[in-house]
Amino acid sequence: MKANKETKRLFVGGLGQAISETDLQIQFSRFGEVSDVEIITRKDDQGNPQKIFAYINIKVAEEDLKKCMSVLNKTKWKGGTLQIQLAKESFLHRLAQEREEAKSKKEKSTTGNTNVSEKMGGIDFQMKAVPGTEVPGHKNWVVSKFGRVLPVLHLKNQHKRKISFVICFSE
């Protein structure tokens, strides 16, 4: 029986200064198919490398991932001590995924069902509106910095001054 392989994003910290993408590709390809390696170097105020870490996308079976973690984590390698863990999902990847899901939902919607965008005049704000701009014809809605349409709540404080809040929902 063949193990189910999934693409995982790994955070690899504690890298030495002499590390290359090829080095990481070779080291991690023993456990799965490495599709992408991104090395990031954080520098101090004088421009000296302070922290070097990487993100690796690898298509790997669960048992091979566990083996990779147990074999490589906390080992000394090329001037550093590896610290390996599953990385948090990339913001850009998640944003692209959400836009793709929204696009497919929009295509699947039937004439009987209307989504929020259609209720507000069918305006598509992806990549067209500047953050903080009002939705035309709807003064109680604005566009967020990520292109989402958000409601604005208008309240008055005890001195009768108007206070406005943008309502944000997070998962």
Describe this protein's structure.
With 171 residues, this protein is an alpha+beta fold. It folds into 2 domains: 5-88, 2-Layer Sandwich (Alpha-Beta Plaits), CATH 3.30.70.330; 92-166, no CATH class. Helices cover 24% and strands 36% of the residues. The chain has helices spanning 21-28, 62-72, 91-108, 116-119; strands spanning 5-13, 33-43, 49-61, 76-77, 80-81, 83-86, 134-135, 138-143, 149-156, 162-166. The strands form 3 sheets. Strands 2-3-1-6 form a 4-stranded antiparallel sheet. Strands 7-8-9-10 form a 4-stranded antiparallel sheet, with no helix packed on it. Strands 4-5 form a two-stranded antiparallel sheet. Residues 110-114 and 123-128 have low confidence and may be disordered. Plays an essential role in the survival of diffuse-type gastric cancer cells. Acts as a nucleolar anchoring protein for DDX47. May be involved in regulation of gene expression at the post-transcriptional level or in ribosome biogenesis in cancer cells. Interacts with the GTP form of RRAGA, RRAGC and RRAGD. Interacts with NIP7. Interacts with DDX18; the interaction is RNA-dependent. Interacts with DDX47; the interaction is RNA-dependent. Keywords: Nucleus, Phosphoprotein, RNA-binding. It is found in: Nucleus, Nucleolus. Residues 98-118 are annotated as: Disordered.
Quick structural summary:
With 171 residues, the chain is α+β, with helices and mostly antiparallel strands.
